[in-house]
Structure formats: C-alpha cells, structure tokens
Specification:
Subcellular location: Secreted
GO molecular function, one term: hormone activity
InterPro entries: 4_helix_cytokine-like_core (IPR009079), Somatotropin/Prolactin (IPR001400), Somatotropin_CS (IPR018116)
Radius of gyration: 16 Å
CATH architecture of one domain: Up-down Bundle
Family: Belongs to the somatotropin/prolactin family.
Order of helices and strands: HHHHHHH
Strand content: under 5%
CATH topology of one domain: Growth Hormone, Chain: A
Shape: elongated
Distance between the termini: 30 Å
Protein name: PRL protein
Number of helices: 7
Number of strands: 0
Structural class: mainly alpha
Amino acid sequence: CHTSGMLTPNGKEYAQKIPREELTHLILKLLQAWKEPLSHFNQHIEHHQELPDDSLSKAKQISNMVHELKTAVEKVTEKARFSISIFKVSCMCSTGLSVSNEANMMSDSDFIHCFRRDSNKVQSYLKILKCRIMPGNSC
C-alpha cells in the first residue's frame, strides 16, 4: 500500500491517546494520500470495456465521497481553529509517497484492499473524534 509508510496508531486504544489536533491531521493526511491514486484508478477502470456502467459510476462516486469528506474535515478543522494552513503545506509536501508509480503497479484487488484498510482507519478515527466532541453518543 502506498500509505504503509505513514505512521498511524495500531489499534483503537492508541488512537484514543492521540490529541484531537493530531488525529484530525492524520485523517486529512490519509484522505489527501488517496486523492491521486483514486484519480488514476478511475482513469484505469474507464478503459475496461467489460465493466458495467454501474461499476464505473460507483468508482467515481467513491472518489467524490473521499473529496467531500476531506473538504468536510477541513471545514470542521477550520471551525475548531486548528492550524489548517500549516497542515495544507505539510500535507502536500511531507507525505513522501510516490503515489502515481505505486498506484499504477498495484493490482485492482490490492488497490481496493489498501483503500478499504485506510477507509476503516479514517472511519475509526472519525468515531473517536465524534466521541470526544459529543460524548454519550454510543461511545
């Protein structure tokens, strides 16, 4: 996976110990890391004539959802007055991921496996943030 080099907490217990700002930064970093690979993946599957239109539509929908989620997390971050401007600079420059080459070399099943793994991480981190912000909602 192209994000394997990113330091992420192993397990919910460790993620709960991370300060809110750092956890938010990690979520945004993961979402940003998938922007280009999802774009490449969409271009790749568009060339598969045997795929039904429904599959192509779902792939585009996933890319749009990731972009919308990233935008929403950025807005929440701005409202919470975290230093988003510093994050945007560091996120673009310091990931150190050679995204396009690895994304092109991965098989579709590996790509989907990696995306699912990172999606599960983002979902878990968002649940932790939600519980910190609004305790009592089945936390």
